[in-house]
DNA sequence: CGCTGACCCTGACGGC
DNA sequence: TGCCGTCAGGGTCAGC
């Protein structure tokens, strides 16, 4: 599930139930994620108040006075609030039990996610070297254009490079390139500033729109059994290879860029 | 430094 | 019904 909008939706969903609470207990069931969960995480967290839930790229940061829990949902992870005593399901790898009667429960079938501990003041290697957040002014056409000069790789791979900009995953890279009218296999270094302006605008629009969609299902995070909101009904190209373009009717084509499914319209994208 | 492909893991799905 | 190959929204890492 998690692209940036799903991660931000998760952050907004759990924040009001987590901030101001205290960690009563941490239960680890399966520590073999992308990297092992530190065995001392429960003892470090126990009794600590949670001061904030932040997001950087697709990482969730749970702040306490003695350090930060850094969570990534990988490809298949989710973080939900459940009631105390609710029996764990398959792939429910750990719980953070909070005062006030909520349990933060992490589920991840593929185990590509992670849960790491970050001492205060330290900046984790995973977070250093990340590019700007896509919804801030630091992500702009001028710097995107400037940094692209001389690059021969496809613009879609460039857009998904976390050093260039964070949080643009495969779905939204496909969508933004369609909306900006840019062929995903065009060399990043051979795209004009004007077209990068269009691309930046569409990245911001598509992410903002998806976050607002996800926001409609926030209630699912508390005691519900529904999944976080999904954006499928508004997709122009992702998952639609062979089907007609919603703008011009041409059959959408598929190719692979950096091992990832890439769909585009030969007529609308140049 | 830039770029490509292998890899981590489970589950869903389509073809035979 | 079962088996097998392929694919999936993440990212790191080695190697050229």
What features would you describe in this structure?
- With 270 residues, the chain is of the alpha+beta class.
- It contains 6 helices and 10 strands.
- The strands form 3 sheets. A 4-stranded antiparallel sheet has the order 1-6-7-5. Strands 2-3-4-8 form a 4-stranded antiparallel sheet, covered by helices on one side.
- Helix 1 packs across helix 6 and helix 5 crosses helix 6.
- About 4% of the residues have low confidence.
- It binds a DNA duplex (16 and 16 nucleotides) through helix 5.
SSE string: HEHEEEEEEEHHHHEE
Radius of gyration: 20 Å
Residue share in helix: 10-25%
Report mean pLDDT, rounded to a whole number.
Answer: 92
* E-strand count: 10
Q: What is the chains' assembly state?
A: single chain
Strand content: 15-25%
Helix-strand category: alpha+beta
Largest sheet: 4 strands, antiparallel
Terminus-to-terminus distance: 29 Å
Q: Tally the helices: what do you get?
A: 6
Principal-axis shape equals: elongated
Low-confidence stretches: 215-226
Strand order, biggest sheet?
1-6-7-5
């Amino acid at each position: 599930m998690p692209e940036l909008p799903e991660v931000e939706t998760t952050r907004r969903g759990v924040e009001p139930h987590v901030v101001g609470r205290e960690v009563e207990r941490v239960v680890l069931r399966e520590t073999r994620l992308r990297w092992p969960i530190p065995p001392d995480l429960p003892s470090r967290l126990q009794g600590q108040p949670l001061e904030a839930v932040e997001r950087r790229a697709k990482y969730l940061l749970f702040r306490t006075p003695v350090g930060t829990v850094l969570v990534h949902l990988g490809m298949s992870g989710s973080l939900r609030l459940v009631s105390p005593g609710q029996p764990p399901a398959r792939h429910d790898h750990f719980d953070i039990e909070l005062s006030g009667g909520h349990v933060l429960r992490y589920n991840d079938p593929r185990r590509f996610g992670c849960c790491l501990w970050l001492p205060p003041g330290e900046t984790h290697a995973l977070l250093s070297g990340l590019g700007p957040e896509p919804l801030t002014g630091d992500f702009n056409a001028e710097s995107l254009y400037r940094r692209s000069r001389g690059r021969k790789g496809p613009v879609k791979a460039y857009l998904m490079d976390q050093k260039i900009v964070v949080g643009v995953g495969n779905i939204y890279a496909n969508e933004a390139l369609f909306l900006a009218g840019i062929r995903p296999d065009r060399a990043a270094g051979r795209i004009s500033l004007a077209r990068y302006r269009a691309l930046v605008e569409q990245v911001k629009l598509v992410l903002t729109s998806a976050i607002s969609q996800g926001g409609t299902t926030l209630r699912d995070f508390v005691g519900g059994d529904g999944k976080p909101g999904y954006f499928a009904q508004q997709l122009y190209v992702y998952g639609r290879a062979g089907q007609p373009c919603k703008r011009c009717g041409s059959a959408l084509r598929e190719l692979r860029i950096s091992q990832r499914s890439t769909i585009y319209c030969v007529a609308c994208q140049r």
